[in-house]
Design goal:
GO terms for molecular function: oxidoreductase activity. This protein is an alpha/beta fold. It is built from 12 helices and 10 strands. The protein has an 8-stranded parallel barrel with strand order 3-4-5-6-7-8-9-10, surrounded by 5 helices. It has a two-stranded antiparallel ribbon with strand order 1-2. The longest helix is centred in the N-terminal third of the chain and has 15 residues. It is globular, with a radius of gyration of 19 Å. The protein starts with a strand and ends in a 21-residue tail after the last helix.
């Protein structure tokens, strides 16, 4: 079963392996399979579920809501996000304005079939809306009982500090950041994590398997396997492209004996690695089939010894992206519509 961790400087516990439905629900898999994977997650002890209004242009939230229908609400932690364009994508159907946040939270709750979400997250930083307006709107959502806590995704260290200060003055808790983080992508380690640790903000990390590259199924000098994420535009093929270089794929192959020595599969090694970082509260995982989760959850509670961690670093060498400047280019400087 899955272990639990506190989320930020709060009393909320979340399953350290959290189910995310970014590229699966209403996109990659049929609804029946999506419901089966959610139920498999519940059976494995996963109680925390992460989605966003933009996933499949709102349809992923609806699928998750139907999949969780009938479950004891108090036994679940449901997260969603706001920022990216949704619906007809009009001029106010995007960003972190008061208008868009107010309308988006109500629509998300309807799709999810719940009166509140446990965590409402700013999916990116909005350079076109005053931060004070955004944080006041989030505070109103909390005071209205529509969200218990607030979080962000892919914010820089400076943005975290400023947002946290405003949230504190407004009397609400900013407790999480959701960045990309894996053995191959460590850009948050130098600046974001130290700032977040100081502020009591946890990391909920996405793509702990580097879009599936750390499974080892992508081989140097060979085409991507048929049906894999790299061959499916709906499954985030553009996100995986930066990892599909022979030097990276060769380095990943060097991880196989390390995983074997530790008694782990490659996916388990990748997920266990991010969970070794005490700043990480949860690793987001997806699944297109229920049996995938049976393997994934076994990474919970695993401790990798110092020799294993050193061997991983040596195997990957300079293929790892550690550039802290990368965090400044993730949020669009202008809204997308």
């Amino acid at each position: 079963m899955v272990n639990y961790r506190y989320l930020g400087n709060s009393g909320l516990k979340v399953s350290e392996i959290t189910f995310g439905n970014w590229v699966t629900h209403a996109s990659q898999v049929a609804e029946e399979a999506a419901v089966q994977t959610v139920h498999a997650a519940l059976d494995a002890g996963i109680t925390t579920f992460d989605t966003a209004d933009v996933y499949a242009n709102t349809a992923a939230e609806s699928v998750l809501g139907r999949a969780l229908a009938g479950q004891r609400r108090a036994g679940l932690e449901i997260f969603t996000k706001v920022y990216f364009p949704t619906g007809p994508k009009g001029p106010n159907d995007t960003g972190l304005s008061r208008k868009h946040i107010r309308e988006s939270i109500d629509a998300s709750l309807t799709r999810l079939g719940t009166d509140y979400v446990d965590l409402y997250q700013a999916h990116r930083y909005d350079y076109e809306t005053p931060l004070e307006e955004t944080m006041q709107a989030f505070a109103d959502v909390v005071r209205q009982g529509k969200a218990l806590y607030i979080g962000v995704s892919e914010w820089t260290a400076e943005q975290l500090r400023e947002g946290h200060a405003i949230a504190r003055d407004l009397g609400v808790q900013l407790i999480s950041n959701q960045p990309q983080y894996s053995m191959l992508h460590r850009v948050i380690e130098e600046r974001v994590i130290p700032a977040a640790d100081e502020l009591g903000i946890s990391q909920i990390v996405w793509s702990p398997m580097a879009q599936g590259v750390l499974s080892g199924k992508y081989l140097p000098g060979q085409p991507a396997p048929a049906g894999s994420r790299a061959t499916d535009e709906k499954s985030g093929a553009d996100f995986i492209e930066s990892f599909l270089h022979d030097d990276i794929l060769t380095a990943v192959q060097r991880l196989k004996p390390i995983a074997s020595e530790a008694g782990l599969t490659m996916p388990q090694l990748a997920i266990a690695w991010v969970l070794q970082n005490p700043s990480v509260a949860a690793a987001l995982v997806g699944a297109s089939r229920p049996e995938q989760l049976a393997e994934t959850v076994k990474a919970s509670g695993i401790t990798l010894d110092a020799d294993t961690l050193s061997a991983i670093d040596e195997a990957l060498g300079d293929t790892v992206n550690r550039d802290p400047e990368h965090t400044y280019s993730v949020s669009p400087k202008r809204r997308l519509v």
